[in-house]
Specification:
The complex is a heterodimer.
Chain A lengths: L2 E7 L5 H9 L4 E4 L6 E8 L5 E6 L11 H10 L10 E7 L8 H7 L5 E6 L1 H6 L6 H8 L3 E3 L8 H13 L13 H13 L5 H10 L8 H13 L4 H23 L9 H10 L4 H40 L5 H19 L2 H17 L1 H15 L6 H7 L4 H6 L7 H10 L8 H12 L5 E2 L2 E2 H27 L10 E2 L8 H35 L3 H17 L4 H15 L1 H13 L6 H9 L6 H9 L8 H10 L12 H13 L4 H11 L3 H25 L1
Helix pairs in contact in A: 7-8, 7-9, 12-13, 12-14, 13-21, 14-21, 18-20, 19-27, 19-28, 20-28, 21-29, 22-23, 23-24, 24-25, 25-26, 28-30, 29-30
Chain B lengths: L7 E2 H4 L1 E7 L2 H9 L7 E7 L5 E6 L2 E6 H6 E4 L2
Antiparallel strand pairs in B: 1-6, 2-3, 2-6, 3-4, 4-5
The chains are: A alpha/beta, B alpha+beta.
């Protein structure tokens, strides 16, 4: 087992840059066991050849937690048997705000773990003419301290050498920074006997949070409860007392060792904020920034997406032609490859969006956006912090929902999780693209603009408005006494670290592939079985029928194959389910063919396009133009009118705006909410709304 | 002469020295972020949709809701 080094520090301390420089692309994202808080872990080779793990903990202000991700840090550090319990701590602090970043540091000292301190933003401090007497601090705490620039690799090697020294010879001479009160002391002494710990502060943390700690047995919890009660231990007052005493222990020290007042506010950030957080300009700039982000996401991603698409089609064709038995080659190309392609095709958009979001976050802009929109989002049961999830939802709901963990209020986090899938994700785009043409002709213009563009925008807006309204309704329904809060720090603006953004995009995308990939792959395999197999007699009858049609109508081989695929899909189990569904979806203007597509696109919405092309016997064509032509020629058997009339297209578009239609999102919601209850409720209300909207639209328009 | 300390709201006087908090649960979170008694607080602006304020406290800036600011008591510096 590798030795573990924990990277800890406040939010905005420059921790991610340090992590990036220590580990590079070796970093992996996982989850801390039992919780959904993201764990970034990377390997580092020490000069002596030993490999160690660097674990990037969530940025926190204190070991007295607020949000879920903060609680995790406390629960790991309060339990020496935790698999992530570190052998050494690297404490990262921003030198320009050192006085406000030491609360956590002194708490960590009291845990008795060896610590190395890394002060970041040395260059900024130099620019502001801020000098801190680091030797005095080293002497005071008896620990190694390094200061580094915000961006360069300078000084990293010295840190790595020091890590090796500290790990081979773990010495610790720093006295506790906080003297426990009489009551705390008695409680901790009693607990030390019951827990395997011999550290007083660790026992005190267990006294504070024993009810929520998973590492304690029921028996231990009861014991701790009786100890705390018998000593009259008041957790809240103890926390406040501890925090204030800790500030007293270092405030003067820092003021004495700093060249001048450390309360220097970056003047540039203030000037920028007059504009960027202005009541009117701020909102306009936000909209503009988002426009560019999404514009970039779509235009940059279109090239790699095309390569992925072409690559998979090519491989599928290759496999069909190497002479394997038909059922096996179909399994590989239509089952596995189609499933994989369906996952991989989203990677470019997700990677680009996360790259850009991380840049905005690192720059300091996201915190401002959260501040600006909090007042609005609160009215809809959300939190300013929900904004990041809502924006990420424009690429994919899965990583978006995974980023709700920074919201401390349970109710707001739940509502954010429930409404995020209403935001039109990238999987809806192929569906919209096929269908908008049936609503307005591409030649139709409003002023200088293409009317289809407006329709597209309208669909996006509809998703956003519905997300807010659903939040408003959920706010009324879900009861909670828990306080909601914002309290967000607005850091100094700084040049974004592109390496960190690249690393974040890379690791997030990897985790998307692993999270969603599994589900999409399994679902698409199940759907492949359902749509390739059917009652044997029926399937054989289809073979004979197509052979006959081929000779009678002298069809080409390709046309006959396309016809066979279409007829087989009709006779398959998926076809049977589609026909069985038809009475239910008829009022929405859909027939069994659309029913099959609704069913198969439950793996991922964009599968709709592929299914439509199979069922209308287009074979493997995925060209939007030809699919649309074929659909336009299709007649309704009952009425003889075009199948894809404007009302049907509108109804189908609305259905895809509202319906959940994504098994992987449901799986992620289940994990985030700890059960199947909420994903099913969510699925139910989204489907209900989709049905209602499509029903009304179709009945009114036709 | 004895001069009484009169605690006021930051929303009224816009700028002052923090002299107390009137809610322990909220103050717990405020102090962990470095918002302490004795800190200098300055209300800069209100957010576009209201209810949230841009506040400078010592060297730091925060977005705080009205309910959070209400907890902070200040005196004229």
């Amino acid at each position: 087992m590798n030795k573990k080094v924990a990277l800890l520090g406040n939010p905005n301390s420059g921790k991610s840059s340090i992590f990036n420089r220590l580990t590079g692309l070796s970093a992996k994202v996982g989850n801390f066991p039992g919780v959904t808080v993201e764990k970034k872990i990377g390997k580092l080779k020490l000069p002596g050849g030993e490999f160690i793990d660097i674990i990037d903990f969530p940025g926190v202000y204190s070991l007295h937690p607020n949000a879920k991700d903060e609680f995790l840090v406390t629960s790991i550090l309060a339990n020496p048997n935790d698999t992530n319990y570190p052998d050494l701590i690297l404490y990262v602090a921003d030198i320009t705000h050192l006085e406000k970043q030491l609360l956590l540091f002194t708490q960590l000292i009291d845990l008795g773990l060896p610590i190395i301190m890394i002060l970041t933003m040395k260059d900024l401090a130099a620019k502001d003419d801020l000098h801190i007497n680091i030797d005095a601090l080293k002497k005071h705490w008896q620990i190694p301290i390094f200061s580094v620039n915000a961006r360069s690799q300078e000084g990293i090697l010295e840190i790595i050498k020091e890590i090796e020294i500290k790990l081979t010879n773990p010495s610790f001479n720093t006295p506790p920074q906080y003297k426990l009160s009489y009551t705390e002391q008695s409680v901790a002494n009693d607990l030390n006997a019951h827990l395997t710990s011999n550290n007083l502060y660790q026992s005190l943390l267990n006294a504070h949070y024993h009810e929520q700690f998973d590492h304690l047995s029921k028996h231990q919890k009861e014991k701790i409860k009786s100890v705390t009660t018998s000593h009259g231990f008041n957790s809240l007052q103890s926390q406040i007392g501890e925090t204030l005493r800790r500030y007293d222990s270092f405030t003067n020290l820092i003021r004495e060792s700093a060249s001048e007042g450390t309360f220097k506010v970056s003047k540039l950030s203030d000037k920028a904020d007059r504009f960027l957080t202005h009541r009117v300009w701020g909102i306009l700039i936000f909209l503009l920034v988002n426009f560019f982000v999404f514009q970039a996401m779509f235009s940059w991603a279109s090239y790699p997406q095309e390569w992925i698409d072409t690559g998979f089609t090519f491989m599928g064709g290759l496999i069909k032609n190497i002479g394997l038995p038909e059922s096996i080659s179909s399994f590989i190309s239509d089952g596995i490859l189609a499933g994989l392609g369906g996952i991989l095709v989203f990677i470019p958009q997700i990677a680009i969006l996360f790259f850009l979001i991380t840049i905005l976050e690192d720059f300091g802009y996201m915190a401002r956006a959260v501040y600006m929109f909090d007042g609005l989002l609160v009215k809809f049961g959300l939190n300013g912090r929900s904004l990041v999830s809502l924006i990420a939802g424009g690429a994919c709901a899965i990583p978006a929902i995974m980023s709700t963990r920074t919201i401390s209020n349970q109710k707001e986090r739940l509502i954010t999780t429930l409404v995020t899938p209403f935001i039109s994700c990238s999987a809806r785009i192929p569906v919209y693209t096929i269908l908008v043409g049936f609503v307005v002709a591409s030649s139709y213009r409003i002023g200088p603009f293409n009317a289809q563009g407006f329709l597209f925008m309208g669909l996006y807006l509809l998703g956003i408005i519905t997300a807010l309204l659903a939040g408003w309704i959920l706010k009324k329904i879900i009861k909670s006494d828990e306080r909601s809060q914002l309290m967000i720090e607005l850091p100094d603006y700084k040049t974004p670290d592109f390496k960190v953004a690249f690393q974040t995009a890379w690791t997030k995308t990897k985790s998307f592939v692993l999270e969603a990939g599994k589900v999409i792959l399994v679902i698409s395999l199940i759907l492949w079985v359902l749509s390739s197999y059917g009652p044997i007699a029926k399937m054989q009858a289809v073979d004979a029928e197509v052979m006959q049609a081929k000779t009678e109508q002298s069809l080409s081989n390709n046309a006959a194959n396309d016809l066979l695929a279409s007829k087989k899909l009709e006779a398959s189990y998926a076809g049977i389910i589609g026909k069985w569904m038809e009475p239910a979806i008829r009022p929405l203007g859909f027939d069994w063919k659309i029913g099959i597509a609704l069913l198969t696109s439950f793996a991922a919405r964009e599968v709709f396009v592929g299914t439509m092309s199979t069922i209308y016997s287009l074979g493997s064509t995925e060209d939007y133009g030809s699919i649309r032509q074929k659909l336009a020629a299709e007649k309704d058997i009952l009425t003889g009118k075009p199948r894809f009339s404007m009302p049907v297209a509108v109804s189908l578009l609305l259905f895809y705006v509202f319906a959940m239609q994504c098994m992987s999102t449901m799986a992620v919601v289940r994990r985030e909410t700890g059960g199947w209850k909420w994903p099913f409720i969510q699925f139910g209300f989204m489907l209900g709304l989709a049905y209602l909207a499509s029903f009304v639209a179709y009945q009114v328009l036709s | 002469m004895f001069k009484p300390i009169i605690a006021k709201s930051l929303l009224d006087i816009k700028e002052g020295k923090i002299c107390g908090f009137n809610d322990e649960n909220v103050s717990r979170l405020l102090i962990s972020k470095g918002i302490l008694i004795g800190s200098l607080a300055k209300l800069i602006r209100v957010s576009p949709f209201g209810n949230t304020y841009y506040v400078q406290i010592d060297g730091l800036r925060f977005g705080l809701r009205k309910q959070e600011i209400d907890v902070i008591q200040v005196t004229e510096a």
